[in-house]
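Case study 2.
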Amino acid sequence: MINTRRATAPEGEHASTGPPGSPDTSGKKESAGESGRPSTLSTVLRRDVPASLVVMLIAIPLSLGIAAASGAPMISGLIAAVVGAVVAGALAGAPLQVSGPAAGLTVIVAGMIAEYGWAATTFITLLGGAIQLVLGITRMGRAALSLSPAVVHGMLAGIGAVIALSQIHVVLGGQAQSSVLANLRDLPGQIVGHHDAAFGIGIVTFAVLLVWPRIPKVSLIPAPLVAVAVATAVSIGFGLTVPRVDLPENVLSGLTLPTLPSGNLGGIIIAAFTIAAVASVESLLSAVAVDKLHTGPRANLDKELVAQGAANMASGALGGLPVTGVIVRSSTNVAAGAKTRASAILHGVWIALFVLFLGSTLELIPMAALAAVLVLTGVRLVSLAHMRELWRHREFPVYVVTFAGVVFLDLVKGVLLGIAVALLLALWRLTRATVEVAEDAADQWRVVVRGSLIFLGVANLVKELRRVPEGKQVVLELHVDFMDHAGYEAIHDWRSGYERTGGTVRVDEVHDTWYQRAHLGKPEQNKSLPGQLPRWFAPWSYWQNMHADDEQAEASTTGTIIPEPRPGADPMMLGMHEFQRRSAPLVRPFLSELAERGQKPSQFFVTCADSRVVPNLITSSGPGDLFTTRNVGNLVPRNDIPSIGSSVGASIEFAVEALEVPNIVVCGHSHCGAMKASLHGGVREGTHLASWLRHAEPSLARYHACEGDSHDDDMAPEDRLSVLNVVQQLDNLMTYPSVREAVEEGRLTLVGLYFDISDARVHVVDPQTGRLSPVDPATVL
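Prediction:
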């Protein structure tokens, strides 16, 4: 008997630690940052420092542009960039995410500055950060992701449109107006009017922004940085007089301390919650998106929310703009090779040093160049790809309503309108029941109802039921996951009235018994209830006789007389009919694909022919997963015993040599008739069965050799023989040269299983001792 069924993996390879057929997940991690181990100095120097410099180059122009579009002091954008990088980066739950001022908050901040002033807006930012901090501590991070993506994308698109419409005026040499309608009203005149040097600077910036990403091998240098640098050089080279960035001579003296807002307290609270909500949603969605860009540790959303809250409190206290996690800078960070949070923190340090020692350089940047960067940023927030995706998922109305509300009303009203439409759409979908009425055969009709049947769908249900002609045999087929009293009453009243006119109605409940329970005065209130077994799961005798049993039970309660069921129906024909009607449409795509590419099963499954053992059922597998051989007693005749045309041997060779299966499973079971016959006799000599069961004699000898073992006490003798028979068949498999060679090369694993029928439980059989252990996905077989 061999000691193990798995050969040692060759040097340099990694043995799989999963169950048979599972993918190898033991691959080597790429770096310290990806594996989750503490970062080393070499990783920071090689990966994070270069990445932080790239992110710094893209963050400076964007931060200045966002501050300008918001109507805030220019230094506030740089303060937010530094604080967001250092504070949020140090505390981040998403280490590779980069935080700073975001275009998505521009419209909100601009409105607050217009209403409360800049100093009061910084206090509202601080208050919004405190709200975020509380949300993170109370583990509300994932709740923010419950917001419909259609609302989020509609909100961002609306903000993008507002930014683009306002900043295009600056590019054209004019001034942004106070509202979208005013910007739209003045835009035609601005386009055809006289344009000064600022317009030329904007055109140059646009050209570089569009052309630079198309030039090979230079994409590592951010296009906004190049565009602003070129526009600045052009403005200086031609001596153009244009509005430029204005920073205080002494940066520290330019800090604005927050002051308490004056005005409506309710409006101030709403403003703070708006900052917290929008910043949280944008940050968390960005963190989820960044997770898809790398293979390192996944984001802790609650911790990230705490980090964002702390950063906003610090930014507000120092006179900075609100902070969020930003996907543009974060994706640049990952693409530049960052591996740890050090990159996000360092980029803030570089910005601070740049402002303190090279602030005069920033004051050379034309405002039109920053406006052009923001126009393109705003346009890109209106994503056609998101529109197409939402159209395919029938969420486009939510997107349109949110977009229009943000553009023409304000951000809060737009988002609330979008949420309202999303809720109405979800309610309509959840409560919508589809009704199909069709003629099955002469005098026989079928009505199929799918979905949740509540009062909102009763009118349509009754309308469709009335289409059935009088005096017919009707099957009312209910695929219903919930039925309220109005739904039950509509069906019952129609059924009673229809049967009074001479027709017959049979209610066929496929997934649950909502109608039957309500009819017997035992209605349920919860939507998800354990009901009838699915028909592929239950024996023919269960579901084909179900209706007769239910009707007899009802008759004993109500005293009614019901007709006898139609005689002569073949259970297999009924089963195949059910498959063609209900299961075939679901499985057809898989079978069609398998027919095209052929079979590539991951398991060769040897088991008994016992009708109570269903391999696909106990392994939760489907078409194409198992290559199966079944015989009396799940026996594998030894290869060294002369036999002619052994079907088991042929199956083994085909599975190992042609299909190259990685696993062979031998599965025995309790209450096995073959093992009882081997143990107690009673098989007539000279029969094919007696000849076949001689292959079980080595298993019987093993059983007698093991009698008296302590672990035999709790099993019936024939069940213990079934377990040892599995061990013997694993030994027999090793007599086949192709099997032995594949096992020794590590290409094949042999596994023993035992299925307890009465307990519906599968056990793993130890190939040496025959002891049973529970199935555990983490167990190495």
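DSSP finds 30 helices and twelve strands in the chain.
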